[in-house]
Amino acid sequence: MKKFICKTTTALLLTGSLLFGTAVPAYAQETMDSGFDYVAGNSDIVYFGGTEALAENTARYALIYKIGIGLTIENHTAYIYSECKTYENCDISVTAELQRLDKDWKTIKTYKASESSSRLCSIDKSYLVTSGHDYRVKVTVSVTDGSKTETDTQYGNVQTCYSLLETEQQ
To answer: Any residues with CB less than 8 A from the CB of 123 and at least 6 apart, and which?
Structure first.
């Protein structure tokens, strides 16, 4: 009886791992250990892109190495971070939109940055927000090396702004 239960459990675990293992997202996430400083330390930066993100080591882009998005909300202040890294020196523009969910996502603040002949362009800003709302950062990047241009838009994780009373009770 124990062998039957053990075999059944093993078969279920293998079947479950096969089913859930095939639902891997197309983008990899990376920890904050990117070699670049991030002021708001309570939030992870979500990374999109890069050669390690896709099977068979096929890069999604020829120019964009990765896009990073971070959002932390503390004491009604949203700390917004976004970055675009490239494989080689390029002209990079980054637009970060802080969005609030009312019925739909609405952009409440937009930040822009650009770099010429660089491998990194980043935005590191803060903005006062109101409690009781969900927020996210939408990032659009455009990279050109003179002969080709790549553009992408990604969304960061959703964060909620709580009132001071709610944070004291947690």
So the answer is: 80, 81, 82, 83, 94, 96, 111, 112, 113
